[in-house]
Design a protein that fits this description.
The protein is an alpha+beta fold and 173 residues long. 29% of the residues lie in helices and 34% in strands. Strand 4, helix 3 and strand 5 form a beta-alpha-beta unit.
């Protein structure tokens, strides 16, 4: 059995595994401020929106299984935010703690540089110290701490925004 982690572009055939990972995160963690699991059609729509905007969706494969996924998308939809994206990284519960999120986040940062992105934002629940430390290890710094903006599991949740600035030159409009 190999233990090599392979990162590749996701395909629509990966969406059921991506959905399972995402729904487990929704149901059991504060990493997603949603309370109801998503449907496969919601993931298909999400995936196609990413593809239509040339945004990456990566999967991590380990021993033939989808162990995690990552992506980035618009931070805000207005034109002047076109050099800013928001990242998401999720790992299947049984694969957490194996360095997969670090590989997935590194791939996103590399892709953002290739796409001439300048600011990479991560919205992280303030109670998620593992994710905060992961992003800080790549040079992200906290730029905002929103108090009690989410409510899940019968408690108020704080949200932190972390940011990584990438050197680039904006292109012509």
């Amino acid at each position: 059995m190999t233990t090599e982690i392979k990162i590749r572009d996701a395909t629509e055939t990966d969406l059921p595994a991506i959905l399972d990972i995402y729904n487990e995160v929704i149901v059991n963690t504060t990493a997603v401020y949603s309370e109801k699991p998503h449907t496969l059609q919601m993931r298909v729509d999400w995936f196609r929106e990413r593809a239509n905007n040339n945004f990456p969706v990566y999967v991590a494969e380990l021993n033939g299984m989808i162990a995690g996924f990552s992506s980035f998308g618009h931070f805000r939809a207005w034109p002047c935010y076109r050099y800013t994206v928001e990242v998401s990284v999720y790992v299947e519960r049984s694969f957490r703690g194996k360095g997969i999120s670090k590989i997935l986040l590194g791939a996103l940062i590399d892709r953002a540089k290739q796409m001439n992105i300048h600011a990479i934002i991560a919205g992280i629940s303030a109670d998620n110290q593992i994710s905060i430390k992961l992003h800080e290890s790549f040079g992200f710094t906290e730029v905002a701490h929103f108090k009690e903006v989410g409510y899940k599991f019968n408690r108020w949740l704080d949200l932190k925004f972390l940011e990584l600035l990438v050197e680039n030159r904006p292109g012509p409009i």
